Amino acid sequence: MSHDLSLDDFFDMLGRYGADIGNWPLSPGQLESVAVFLSRSAVAREAVEEMRLMETALRGELPLAPHGLADRILAAAGISVGRNAAIFAVPRPRRIRYN
To answer: Source organism's superkingdom (predicted)?
Structure first.
């Protein structure tokens, strides 16, 4: 890999190896090239941040909204949930453990 890393190549590696560039199977010189590329490409930096968010979500580490938050938001918007509360009820996701 040289300093002329393309955005497509970067996206390919990001998809294969994840947001932690240190985990990519690259030599120190190649890692330096990626660091230079990231310093020059706002699109690449944004893609890394989006990958980090996705990885966090897939690990189930995002906080869940407090119970009743949807009802409070709808009430603040002037929408009565009364009898129709079941329509807006969203079951809490179960955490799935993979061994």
So the answer is: Bacteria
